[in-house]
Amino acid sequence: MRETKGQTLVHCPQCGENKVKNHAPAIFQVLMLVGVLMCFTIEGIPFGIAFIIGAIISKKSKARLKFTCQECKHSFKVQEQVYEEYSQYLKAN
Ligand SMILES: [Zn+2]
Fold first, then answer.
1. Ligand 1 centre and the CA of 22: distance in Å?
2. What is the pTM of this model?
3. How many CB atoms lie within 10 A of CB 73?
4. Ligand 1 is an ion; residues with CB less than 5 A from it
């Protein structure tokens, strides 16, 4: 059985470190949370829906492929396939 470790899949192209951070899950959660909270008031529902749609779009957009290295603060993008493996790892843990 092949052992997959998400953090070892993505390396910083500049310094080679694997201490990289992907902001997409956090952005998705914040947009979702704000959207759901806004739906608690009648006036907020249209805005809430807009935020929820934004959250879904952020999950599909290429922006989610962006990583930031925590060692040298270098920002870089990974291939979609690499990101999928990375997110599979996050889900499995
Ligand atoms: Zn780096």
1. 13
2. 0.73
3. 10
4. 12, 14-15, 17, 69, 71-72, 74
